[in-house]
Design a protein that fits this description.
By secondary structure, the chain is mainly α. It has one domain. 86% of the residues lie in helices and 0% in strands. It is elongated.
């Protein structure tokens, strides 16, 4: 849900690739941290809270890093596909 809102925001307002990928990257981090917090409160979340605070921070950091990497990759691929589609339609229009 968080990513859907960010994608809509990017489609309507982001003018540069850097702005779009930045918004999507931060949304990926936030979304994965929300999932991490949700897992802490599930019965299986006991495996996260059994360690000390340092291991809990490492787990949260890995969730955030994966969200960042996935959102950046997705944003760049989406931008490239969109650019390719517009470039192709412009070339076909000129022929």
């Amino acid at each position: 849900m968080v990513l859907d809102v960010a994608c809509t925001l990017v489609e309507r307002h982001a003018r540069t690739m850097l702005a779009a990928v930045g918004v999507l990257a931060m949304t990926g981090v936030a979304g994965n941290l929300i999932c991490f917090i949700k897992r802490l409160f599930e019965p299986a979340g006991v495996m996260f809270s059994a360690g000390n605070a340092e291991s809990l921070l490492w787990a949260a950091g890995s969730y955030a890093a994966f969200g960042l990497a996935a959102a950046v990759c997705g944003g760049v691929v989406g931008w490239a596909m969109r650019r390719r589609r517009f470039t192709r339609s412009d070339a076909e229009g000129r022929s």
